[in-house]
Structure formats: C-alpha cells, structure tokens
Design brief:
Helix content: 25-40%
Distance between the termini: 17 Å
Number of domains: 2
Strand order of the largest sheet: 1-7-6-4-5
Order of helices and strands: EEHHEHEHEHEHEEEHEHEHHHEE
Bound molecules: coenzyme A
CATH class of the largest domain: Alpha Beta
CATH superfamily of the largest domain: Thiolase/Chalcone synthase
Structural class: alpha/beta
C-alpha cells in the first residue's frame, strides 16, 4: 500500500504587494529585490482572517475537486509557522469550518520544510492501512510575523495556502515512493522568531524590541539551503536509481530564485524540469510546495506516472525531499 495525491488546490489572498509598493516602505528597489531573489510581488492576507481562512478555501477546493464530503476525512494535518492561535491547533479551526465531523488532526511546525513533514506524516497513516482519506495542508500568513520596516526580511515573504488529499493505492506507478527528512537545531539562531513562546512570553519589552518578528542571517540560510536541498535531492535520486533526466519536474521550496537555480544546476536539471513561481508570491513558507504543485498541475505540466521530486529547506534548520509518481 502506498499514498497518492488524488486532489490538489491552493488559495492566495487578493491583495498584491509589489516591489514598487515596498520601495515606498523601506530603502530598497525593484532592481535589488528582483536580482537578489527573483521576487516581483507577493500576496497579503487581510487582518483578522488568519492562516485557517486561506487553508479552509484550499481544502474546500480539494474536496470539491475529488467529490469527497468533508465527513469522509479521517485526518487533517496542517503545516504552519503562523497558526491562528498557539492553542488550539489550526487543524481544529479548519475541521470546524469544513464540518469534517469524523476526523482527527494536528499541526506540524517544520519551518519551510513543514509541508514535506506533513505530507510524509500523512502518507504513513495511509501506508499503514489505518486511514483512507488524509487532508494535508500547508498554510502561512507570514505577513503576521514580518517587520515591514526591516528591508532584510519584508521583501521575501508572502501569504498563501495549498492542500492535497492523500488516498491509498496499490499501483506502483502512482504515489509516494521515498522521502528523507533532516533536522539540525544548531541552525535555530539563524532563522527564528525569538519571542511569543514559553521561553520569552509576550511582554511590553518583547514587543518594544520587535522580538515577535522573523529574524534571519540571510547569507548563512542561503548557503545552508543550497547545501541541504542539493544533498537530499541527490540522495533520493541515487537511492531510487533515477537519473536527473528521468525527473519530469523538480518542485522546490520557493525561498529565493538564486537558491533554486544553484540547486538545479548542481543536479544537472534543465530549466524545463524546474518549477518556479516565486516571482508572483515570494516565500510563503509551508505553502510554497503545495501551491507550486497545484499550479504545475493546473498548467498540465505533469501526467500520470511522471516522476516528481519535491525539495525544501527552512528554519530549524530542517530540510527534506520527497520522490513521488504523479497520480492525477
Ligand atoms: N534592498 C536593498 N538592499 C538590501 C536589502 C533590500 N531589500 N536587504 C538587504 N540589503 C543590503 C544589505 O543591508 C547589505 O548591505 P551592506 O553590504 O551595506 O550591509 C547588502 O544589501 C547585501 O546584502 P547581502 O546579505 O549580501 O545580500 P544577499 O545577496 O545575501 O541577499 C537575501 C540577501 C536575504 C536575499 C539572501 O541572503 C537570501 O535569500 N537568503 C536566504 C533567505 C531565505 O530563503 N530565508 C527563508 C528560509 S528558507
């Protein structure tokens, strides 16, 4: 038994924040942002909506696409670093909005690798034979934890959600073949939101010091991201006896176009084999991979049986990859 993706969708808020808009907010330029990151614009969620709002839209699309009523879901797994609240889980809020009255669920924080953590977790419930329908969502309202006075970070991130339905199959030409997940917590200081957890609860002082916003050492994260993603993807290729030319599409986490290009070049993948949509959305953390997969599917870039590689790197540090055969 293996797990396959049987439906996929995504949701982005309507409001667009362009590089020209950012030029009016911080000392930056469209030229700098485009050449250093590949990003032209990103979407921003309205206030008082939360990550569950975007996730519920993406999830509803997925259920509709597959013709599955929400009450048939066995499990909802949500990857997010921007939960609506720290308690309860965002999965619980989505369950209620979907009226998915017969399922379990929980959140996963795997940084920018969160969706791959959630996808591979969901796959285990299917492969064990325990569950038949697992909804896996990546959703992040990064605008909630970004300082729009900090040009080092505010140009990079955006808001979005993506969702997939996992179901079982016995067909070896479809579904998740293999994966790897990695974690190195010595990377924690290089990409974090210092306050708001149990270590530094919210206080007037933490707010005054802007400790509730993303802090990162961009150069360090860049280097480690290229190294980690390259290593995990080549390991998956070697382990599964697959040549780079046999991959239909490499769908990487979208953090920086230069990171993606460096990884793709080192793996000898040509540009048609690499899916990039960062110019439209920036880095939407847990949502980048399901959203990119969803857009590639809508663009008819994948056929049933095609070999697909997903790769991610993020806060933790976390990194991982998934090798799958497309099934829809
Ligand atoms: N506009 C103009 N100048 C900017 C800027 C901006 N938005 N942001 C930073 N700069 C400045 C810096 O202050 C620095 O100036 P200085 O030399 O006077 O100190 C200069 O540009 C060069 O910065 P540098 O850090 O060398 O740029 P870079 O080429 O490394 O690009 C990032 C910076 C953040 C785009 C890049 O490091 C990156 O993408 N890192 C990975 C981040 C990431 O993906 N995080 C998510 C987790 S997966």
């Amino acid at each position: 038994m293996r797990a396959m993706i049987t439906a996929i969708s995504h949701y982005v808020p309507e409001h667009v924040l362009t590089n020209a808009d950012l030029e009016k907010m911080v000392h930056t330029s469209d030229e700098w942002i485009t050449s250093r990151t590949g990003i032209k614009e990103r979407r921003i969620l309205g206030q008082n909506l939360g990550a569950s709002y975007m996730a519920t839209h993406a999830a509803q699309n997925v259920l509709e696409q597959r013709g599955v009523p929400a009450r048939e879901l066995d499990l909802i797994i949500v990857a997010t670093v921007t939960p609506d609240m720290s308690v309860p889980s965002t999965a619980a809020l989505i369950q209620d909005k979907l009226h998915a009255d017969n399922c379990g669920g929980f959140d996963i924080n795997g940084g920018c690798s969160g969706f791959l953590c959630a996808l591979t977790t969901g796959a285990q419930f299917i492969e064990s034979g325990r569950y038949q329908k697992v909804l896996v969502i990546g959703t992040d309202a990064m605008s909630a934890i970004i300082d729009y006075e900090d040009r080092n970070t505010c140009i990079l991130f955006g808001d979005a959600a993506g969702a997939v339905l996992l179901e079982p199959t016995n067909n070896p030409d479809w579904g998740i073949e293999d994966f790897e997940l990695h974690l190195d917590g010595s990377g924690a200081p290089y990409l974090c939101v210092p306050a708001g957890g149990s270590l530094q609860p919210a206080s007037l002082d933490t707010v005054a010091k802007k400790l509730h916003y993303v802090r990162q050492d961009g150069k360090k994260v860049f280097k480690e991201a290229v190294k980690g993603m390259k290593k995990v993807v080549s390991s998956l290729l070697v382990k599964n006896g697959v040549d780079a030319q046999d991959i239909k599409l490499f769908i990487p986490h979208q953090a920086n176009k230069r990171i993606i290009d460096a990884v793709a070049n080192s793996l000898n993948l040509n540009s048609e084999q690499v899916y990039i949509n960062i110019f439209k959305y920036g880095n939407t953390t847990s949502a980048t991979i399901p959203m990119a997969m969803s857009e590639a599917y809508l663009d008819k870039m994948m056929q049933k049986g095609d070999r697909i590689i997903l790769g991610a790197f993020g806060a933790g540090f976390t990194w991982g990859g998934v090798f799958l055969k497309w099934a829809i």
